């Protein structure tokens, strides 16, 4: 895959993937870590290719909010897209469609051709994670699955540019955990290949399940305006920034500028969890990562995450992951 990028002065730059389709097709893991610097922005990217799958993730910062982008030599692949941080809009002139990119949201897309505009917030961090399945591999994996995936598969076999849903969905904790497992994979050789394959398929299954549930759920929504949705995302960030000494529901609702009922219902609609259930999951995922640091003892981790006691932390961790913190380490 290659991209032609034009900045505000119409200066032309070309960005080419360092992993080609031949390497992606091999039953071996090829990995590249690279840094790019252009007048319009910088990027630090990791690319991993194997057995018809291409993983790409990294951090991007832009200095120009609007860029013209054209893709060429684009492989026929389906993209699982996860926006970890940052917001943006992609407008494809070839399809007259806009794709919204929002922090902590995901979608599945097939875009064989792109010629259009990309708009991003400047001077703010952008972090993304993508898994690209070669089209035939994706069809093989999903041919006997849900009606939604079959319809999506029919569109991509007809070479139509399509997203599985007009609405992005929130990235679940299970998805975050799977993404972290891929980024922190310590296996080598054949075990690494097996591990990464299984995790990529797991991510696809988690996304498919989420979109199927959303498609079948006809319950009236509490959040009807963009303002209310933004307030829920603000509440999440406010809550996580005070994870060790969290506000009450009343305090959180006041900080977010919405009433308590809308906070509770909207949070569950958006993140499929209660306010404090989400906070607990967030802290336990942090604990899982901190346990990898052998210099931190379990008491320190417990205190760092704001648990009232080691026993309380250990009980919560065991309930979540099925093993004690000590055994997990």
Number of strands: 14
Specify the number of helices. 12
Shape: globular
Q: How far from one another are the termini?
A: 40 Å
Sheet bearing the most strands, described?
A: 8 strands, antiparallel
Low-confidence stretches: none
Q: How much of the residues is beta strand, in percent? A: 25-35%
* Proportion of helical residues: 40-55%
Radius of gyration: 21 Å
Structural class comes to alpha+beta
Q: Mean pLDDT, as a whole number?
A: 88
- Could you spell the SSE succession in H and E letters? EEHEEEEEEEEEEHHEEHHHHHHHHH
Task: Report on the architecture of this protein.
With 329 residues, this protein is of the alpha+beta class. It is built from 12 helices and 14 strands. The strands form 2 sheets. Strands 3, 4, 5, 7, 10, 12, 13 and 14 form an 8-stranded antiparallel β-sheet that branches. A 6-stranded antiparallel β-sheet has the order 2-1-6-11-8-9, with no helix packed on it. A hairpin with a 4-residue loop joins strand 8 and strand 9 (97-101). Helix 2 packs antiparallel against helix 3, helix 6 packs across helix 7 and helix 6 (226-241) packs across helix 8. The model has no long low-confidence stretch (mean pLDDT 88).
TL;DR of this structure?
The protein is α+β, with helices and mostly antiparallel strands and 329 residues long.
Label this structure with key terms.
14 strands, globular, eight-stranded antiparallel β-sheet, six-stranded antiparallel β-sheet, single chain, alpha+beta, 12 helices, 329 residues
Outline the fold blueprint.
Elements: E1 2-6, E2 12-16, H1 21-25, E3 30-38, E4 41-50, E5 53-62, E6 66-72, E7 77-85, E8 88-92, E9 97-101, E10 105-110, E11 115-120, E12 126-134, H2 135-142, H3 147-157, E13 162-163, E14 169-170, H4 173-183, H5 189-216, H6 226-241, H7 249-256, H8 260-271, H9 275-290, H10 298-304, H11 310-321, H12 325-328
Antiparallel strand pairs: 1-2, 1-6, 3-4, 4-5, 5-12, 6-11, 7-10, 7-12, 8-9, 8-11, 10-13, 10-14
């Amino acid at each position: 895959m290659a991209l032609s990028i034009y900045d505000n002065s119409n200066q032309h730059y070309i960005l080419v993937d360092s992993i080609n389709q031949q390497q992606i097709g091999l039953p071996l893991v090829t990995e590249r870590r690279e840094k790019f610097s252009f007048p319009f922005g910088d990027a630090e990217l990791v690319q991993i290719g194997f057995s018809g799958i291409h993983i790409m993730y990294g951090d991007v910062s832009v200095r120009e909010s609007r860029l013209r982008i054209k893709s060429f030599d684009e492989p026929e692949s389906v993209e699982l897209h996860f926006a970890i941080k940052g917001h943006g809009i992609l407008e494809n002139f070839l399809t007259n469609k806009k794709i919204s990119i929002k922090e902590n949201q995901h979608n599945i897309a097939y875009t064989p051709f792109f010629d259009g505009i990309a708009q991003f917030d400047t001077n703010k961090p952008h972090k993304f994670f993508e898994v690209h399945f070669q089209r035939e591999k994706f069809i093989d994996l999903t041919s006997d699955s849900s009606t939604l995936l079959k319809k999506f598969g029919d569109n991509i076999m007809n070479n139509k540019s399509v997203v599985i849903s007009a609405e992005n969905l929130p990235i679940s904790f299970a998805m975050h955990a799977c993404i972290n497992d891929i980024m922190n994979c310590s296996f080598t050789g054949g075990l690494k290949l097996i591990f990464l394959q299984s995790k990529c398929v797991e991510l696809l299954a988690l996304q498919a399940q989420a979109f199927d549930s959303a498609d079948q759920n006809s319950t009236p929504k509490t959040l009807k305006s963009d303002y209310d949705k933004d307030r829920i995302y603000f509440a999440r960030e406010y809550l996580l920034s005070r994870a060790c000494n969290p506000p009450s529901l009343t305090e959180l609702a006041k900080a977010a500028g919405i009433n308590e009922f809308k906070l509770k219902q909207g949070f569950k609609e958006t993140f499929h969890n209660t306010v404090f259930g989400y906070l607990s999951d967030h802290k336990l995922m942090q604990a899982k990562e901190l346990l990898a640091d052998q210099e931190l003892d379990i008491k320190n981790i417990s205190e760092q995450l704001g648990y009232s006691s080691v026993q309380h932390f250990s009980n919560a961790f065991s309930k979540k992951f099925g093993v004690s913190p000590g055994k997990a380490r």
